[in-house]
Write a structure and sequence with these properties.
CATH class of the largest domain: Alpha Beta
Shape: elongated
Number of helices: 14
CATH architecture of the largest domain: 3-Layer(aba) Sandwich
Number of domains: 2
Length: about 375
């Protein structure tokens, strides 16, 4: 294939998927510089800025420049006037980023030929039959769960619905997490457990202490800011690994909760876990398990019955301070689960609903109805 000085790829990338990556990678391989123009309109409910961010992250430190162009113009491939409106908006968007001439337009659609002719450029058709990657934006929007692994990882991280459960010791947080995970796994087979890493870290830390002193007890453990830094960062990693696999994440605690446990053990002046907070993934909802009406069960690893009310208050205050949506789940187990599923179902329905303008076309792959 010929190499070009300046290549261009345009598309909605709604959402960006493996087929888009193949198209852009192919174009980048055969261009000295490649401009990827993301077209977004007000009738679509994934923000243009997000699509630009995701593609920029996917092609970071390459010869690819990603730019966004708001474009509310209708589509009509038979209308010269509409073609002119699109082409002029694209020309200005490129010129404002220093691209004044185009040598090649890379696309997987026949319309790329007409676009290339407008700019006096070559048209390079890439995998028009979608045989290399049998996926389309239409397919992703129709069945997000089935297409999840084909969506670019940066997009999956932001698009996943994230439900985070937090609470003081022995308030039923883990019990409710397991119940919700079991409930939603029927719909999402790829839904994975996101456990409380701090508990497992405590097990390992105590085992190390006993290896040095067989008489050591839990109260002998000496906690440091670095301990909480490790816990917070690993908690983020576990959550993000789950989001990469499934469009729903249900997590038993998070790195924000880690900052409160650090305060609990080391006081207000310790901030080891706060570096994990700077990378806190986006989330949809926190569920705080109420301490009231739940008997304290000492499993040998707990020590805070007398501070449960205080910890519950800390969660309410910190989540409010950080501007997060949270619900205090109270009552017996069935009531708590019902409260949670009622709102989570609505969040899933809202986040999985993709809107498009009436002129939007659907891409149908070979073998699809």
């Amino acid at each position: 294939m010929t190499r070009f000085a300046q290549g261009v790829v345009i598309g909605k990338f709604y959402p960006p998927h493996a087929g888009h990556r193949h198209l852009i990678s192919t174009a980048a391989e055969h261009s000295d510089e490649l401009a990827v123009v993301v077209l977004g309109n007000r009738f679509e409910n994934i923000e243009l800025a997000d699509r630009v961010k995701w593609l920029a992250a996917e092609f970071e430190e390459t010869n690819v420049t990603v730019l966004g162009m708001p474009n509310d113009c209708p589509e009509d491939y038979q209308s010269p006037a509409i073609w002119k409106a699109h082409d002029e908006a694209l020309r200005i968007a490129l010129r404002m980023r220093g691209v004044t001439s185009i040598d090649a337009v890379f696309s997987s659609e026949e319309y790329g030929q007409q676009l290339a002719e407008h700019f006096g450029a070559a048209h390079v058709l890439v995998d028009a039959a979608r045989t290399a990657y049998p996926v389309s934006g239409t397919l992703c929007r129709d069945d997000l769960t089935a297409a999840w692994r084909t969506i670019l990882k940066p997009a999956r991280q932001d698009m996943a619905v994230r439900i985070i459960l937090v609470g003081a010791e022995s308030t039923g947080t883990s019990t409710l997490t397991r119940a919700l995970t079991a409930h939603y796994r029927k719909r999402y087979p790829e839904l994975v457990d996101v456990p409380e890493f701090g508990r497992h870290y405590t097990y390992d830390k105590f085992a190390a202490a006993q290896a040095e002193n067989p008489d050591a007890v839990l109260a002998d453990l000496v906690w440091t800011a670095e301990d909480f830094a490790v816990i917070g960062e690993r908690q983020n990693e576990l959550e993000n690994e789950a989001a990469a696999r499934c469009p729903l994440v249900i997590a038993d605690t998070d790195s924000l909760a880690t900052t409160l446990w650090e305060r609990y053990y080391l006081g207000e002046g310790s901030h080891g876990s706060y570096r994990a907070m700077t990378q806190l993934p986006r989330r949809d909802l926190y569920l705080i398990t109420d301490h009231e009406g739940v008997a304290f069960e000492d499993d040998g690893w707990r020590e805070g019955e007398h501070r449960r009310a205080e910890m519950t208050e800390w969660f309410k205050e910190e989540l409010t301070r950080e501007g997060h949506s949270w619900i205090l789940v109270s009552g017996d187990h069935d009531r708590r689960r019902a409260t949670a599923t009622e709102v989570v179902d609505l969040i899933i329905a809202q986040r999985n609903r993709f809107t498009s303008p009436p002129w939007a076309t659907r891409t149908v792959l070979a073998g699809q109805p």
